[in-house]
Amino acid sequence: MNCTKESMLLYAITDRTWVGKQTLMEQVKDSLEGGITFLQLREKDLDEAHFLEEAKEMKALASKYRVPFVINDNVDIALACSADGVHVGQSDMAASKAREKLGPDKIIGVSAQTVEQALAAERMGADYLGVGAVFATSTKDADVIARDTLKEICGAVSIPVVAIGGINHNNILELAGSGIDGVSIISGIYGQPDIKEACRKLLKLSKEMVGI
Q1: 207 annotated active-site
Q2: Which end of the chain has the least Cβ crowding within 10 Å, N or C?
Q3: Per its UniProt entry, what is the enzyme's top EC class, as one word (predicted)?
Q4: Of 7, 111, 184, 206, which is the active-site residue?
Q5: Is 101 a catalytic residue?
Q6: pTM, whole model, 2 decimals?
Q7: How far is CA 43 from the centre of its chain?
Q8: Residue 43 known to bind ligand
Q9: DSSP letters of 148-162?
Q10: Active-site residue among 56, 97, 140, 196?
Q11: Phi-psi category of 132—alpha, beta or left, where left has phi over 0 and alpha has psi -120 to 50?
Q12: 208 is in an annotated binding site
C-alpha cells in the first residue's frame, strides 16, 4: 500500500491508555469506519508474542478498509505481520537501516523536529515525516516546535508531512497554511466517547485545513 499526501489527512495512532468499555480492536474498527486514512500501532509495554498477535489482527482489519498500516519503532514486528511499513523516531533505528531490513516497497515514516532532521530522513529514504509536537500534549513528552519551523520543514522536503502533538477538533484549523498534508492524532480519536463521530468530524476539518 502506498503512502500519499491524501493518506496523511487523518493519521491515527493507537494508545492502550484509552481501552475501557471497548477493546483496542473495537476502537480501531470504529476509527476505520469513521474515516481515518492511516493507522499506526504503538505498543510500549506489550511482550513480543502478544504484540505480534495483535499486529496481525490489526493489519487484517486495516487491509479490509484499504488503510495503510505501520508499526511504531519495531521493524521485526512490522516484518513478521506483513505491515505496510514502520515509523521510527530520532532515537530509534535510522531510516536507511529500516529500509535495508524492510526492502524498497514498504512505507517508512520518521519523526522530525528540525529542518536538518527532516532533510536527513528524506535522504535516507523516508516516505513521510511526522513533525511535532505542534501543540502541548500529555500523551507524549515532547517539546512544542514553532510554527515557523513547521513551515520550514514542509518547504524543505518533497515527501508528505503530518503534524503531531495535542491536535484536536478545537485547534486543528490553526494549522492551516503551514504546508502540512494532515494530522496525526491519539487522544483526540481514541480518548473520545464516540470514536466514529470524532473521526468523521476530524477528517472533515483536516480536509478544510489542507484546502481540499
Answers
A1: no
A2: C
A3: transferase
A4: 111
A5: no
A6: 0.97
A7: 13
A8: yes
A9: HHHHHHHHH-SS-EE
A10: 140
A11: left
A12: no
Task: List, for residues 50-88, the tens digit of each pLDDT value.
Answer: 999 999 999 999 999 999 999 999 999 999 999 999 999
Q: Which three cell numbers stand for residue 63?
A: 487491509
Which grid cell is 174?
A: 490553526
The β-bridge relationship of strands 85-88 and 69-72 is: parallel
111 counts as catalytic? yes
Show the domains of the chain with their CATH numbers: 6-210 (3.20.20.70)
Say if residue 205 carries a ligand binding annotation: no
Handedness of CA 17, 19, 23, 28 (dihedral sign): negative
Residue 173 marked in a binding site: no
Catalytic residue among 5, 42, 196, 200: 42
**182 annotated ligand binder:** no
* Cβ-based neighbours of 192, under 8 Å, separated by 6 or more: 198
Tracing cell 495483535 back to the chain, one arrives at 54
